[in-house]
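Ticket #4471: structure export looks truncated?
Reporter: QA, pipeline team
Priority: medium

Steps to reproduce: submit the single chain below to the structure queue and open the exported record.
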Amino acid sequence: MSIHDIPDDQLRRGDIGCTILCQMDFATNPQRWWLGYGDLTAGGVEYNGTGDVIQISAINITYGMSAGMVRFNIPNASPEMVARCDNQAAEVNNRVCRIFYQLFSTVERGGKHSGRLIGEPMAIFTGVMRDMRSTSSAESREIELEAYGRLSRQGRAPYGRWTDADQQARYPGDTGLGLLAALKDKSVTWVPAS
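Actual output as written to the record:
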């Protein structure tokens, strides 16, 4: 669903709020939560309220793609939460994380209550999670988890190299890069078309 599917009269009144919904597909215990209190069903999915327990870093929203990194933070984690956080790489790393906006009404209008949901959740970030870590001191305990969007790997080296061996590993029988090694120190003279 798009924000364009919501009637203009609802959007232009100035009495609409928005909240964040999050789906974290952990390996054994997927979580669906929202930044509010109590349970919420949106788009056919039930989300548990976290109140102000979880904090989310600024989200860089780009049109059609999730480019950046989002950091989730639990600044006042309990000792039990910190203990469960350790050694969770298999549970967390490379698992999908999605963040949605959900619009809702902030006033009662036409017999409809305030807080009612408007439209379906709108996806604003899709990425993979990694690097869950905790820090503990005498004064505080904190858990941090990062999720990386689809384009966040742009500056990293690609998988493999442009060699015949790597091409054969990807596509057995492909001969497209078979002559590449022979061209290593060759100079090519380009003759302009006449």
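Status: closed, not a bug. The export was complete when the record was re-opened. Leaving a note from the reviewer for reference: The longest helix spans residues 79-85.
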